[in-house]
Amino acid sequence: MKILKFAAIDIGSNAARLLLTNVVEDGETVVFSKSSLVRVPIRLGEDAFSIGYISEHRAQKLLKTMIAFKNLMEAQDVVAYRACATSAMRSSSNAPELVSMVKQHANINIEIIDGSREAEIIYANGIAEMLDHDRPYIYVDVGGGSTEITVFEKGEIKASNSFNIGTIRILKGMIGKPDFDQVRDWLKSVVKKKDQPKIIGSGGNINKLYKLARKPIGEPLYQKEVKNLYDFLDSFSVEDRIKFLSLNPDRADVIIPATKIFLKVMKWTGAKEVIVPTIGISDGIIRTLYADYKQSLALQQ
């Protein structure tokens, strides 16, 4: 048996995450086991979506976080890592300068990926393995700056799109009815309600909803449960969500617009349940890293 450790850095609009994963090789069997997850709420989207660039204050928070992540990876003897930045960095005019700064001072290479690449990485999680080929599935990943939606039919990707509708953009009043109409029209063009699709939910907010619902592992969230959770959370102020529901400050505000997005997708597609496998872009990065690692070994032989 051989154990390798890989790391994924996901620099999102709301937070930066470092996922450390053990990959256990035992003959032909390969098991991916999460070792630890560190999450730092930098909120790059607060700057990127309002002023168009990352302020010095948040740039320094990003740098300090990347230096800390680098030290953790070295202490954990990581075989390989990949750092990906998404919507906030895509929207920041000074993103190239930040990438250079992090490379110089933290020795971490940041890749700024577009929405389609983001969807590809998420798909690398082995989503196809969990699908019933007799019905369509809609993979929905809600972030602070964008929402990635992939439609599967018969275990294969039928259509995929990235929309600049995210929780931070909604909170800042940047998203209106025409933006949601664009998502609705696209979904109606690729999904038929009569086919009774199921949603696979991804992102920190749907994971938190799942925990709040106290569902047995593997059981889906039903539409009525999602609506009840929305009404319950919306009855509290942001401060009371932190105080009485023990939500993190950077989760307490974004969870409402995130839930709204899921409810809208369910309404437009006729989906009655959300499967929550607690996977995201970080897990996909680990899978792609391991595949690249094995390919490089094969080439050396």
Approximately how much helix is present in the residues? 40-55%
| Total count of strands | 11
- Low-pLDDT stretches are none
User: What is the overall shape?
Assistant: globular
Give a short account of the largest sheet. Answer: 6 strands, mixed
| Residues in β-strands, percent | 15-25%
> Number of folding domains?
2
Structural class: alpha/beta
CATH-defined fold name of the largest domain: Nucleotidyltransferase, domain 5
Q: So, CATH architecture of the largest domain?
A: 2-Layer Sandwich
Topology at a glance:
Elements: E1 2-11, E2 16-26, E3 29-40, H1 44-48, H2 56-75, E4 80-85, H3 87-90, H4 95-106, E5 110-112, H5 115-123, E6 137-142, E7 147-153, E8 156-163, H6 167-171, H7 177-190, E9 198-202, H8 204-213, E10 221-222, H9 223-234, H10 238-245, H11 249-252, H12 255-269, E11 273-275, H13 281-300
Parallel strand pairs: 1-4, 4-5, 6-9, 9-11
Antiparallel strand pairs: 1-2, 2-3, 6-7, 7-8, 10-11
How is this structure best described in words?
With 301 residues, the chain is an alpha/beta fold. The chain folds into two domains: 2-115 and 282-300, ATPase, nucleotide binding domain (Nucleotidyltransferase, domain 5, 2-Layer Sandwich); 130-278, Exopolyphosphatase. Domain 2 (Nucleotidyltransferase, domain 5), CATH 3.30.420.150. Helix content is 46%, strand content 24%. A hairpin with a 2-residue loop joins strand 7 (147-153) and strand 8 (156-163). The longest helix is centred in the N-terminal third of the chain and has 20 residues, at 56-75.
